[in-house]
Amino acid sequence: MSAPKAAPRGHSSPRSSPAPQPADIWGNLVRHQLEWGVKSTLTLIKSAEAMRKIQLHYANLARERHEDVLERLHDATSPEQMVSLQAELWRFDGAGAMRYWQDLFDAAARMNADLIGCVAGAAEATRDDSLATAMQPFQGGMHTGIAPLDELINASLNQQLMKPARAS
Known about the structure:
Layout: H1 22-75, H2 79-125, H3 129-141, H4 147-153, H5 156-162
Helix pairs in contact: 1-2, 1-3
């Protein structure tokens, strides 16, 4: 009897890679879900910090301006000077409020764009065959018997997320 010959180097064996084990499938599913949750939370925390910095910046500007006006108010001798100081405050406060809200809006828009990126990344990660295999029994078992809810669960978007990515 002769011993079986080993495949020459550089040649792959005819066997394909082993099928993913259920523990691997669930581990990947949990990992992806946890990663998405942590990334989303981190995005919200960073955005809250950015918004707080904006609030502090404009609060400091307003405080400095009001302190300056208060000092000059003590030196004002005529009603015209006092009205001029009041008009200056109105102008500054109005312009400052516009910049403040614009900066807050920009920070919120950046946060939303980052969250959309997190969701897109999570959707792309779930296109893996093993995740789809793990999720199909759940989706199949999520029937309520109430037609609108069943239609929502089985909507085409959910079905698309369950399909593996196509090879390009």
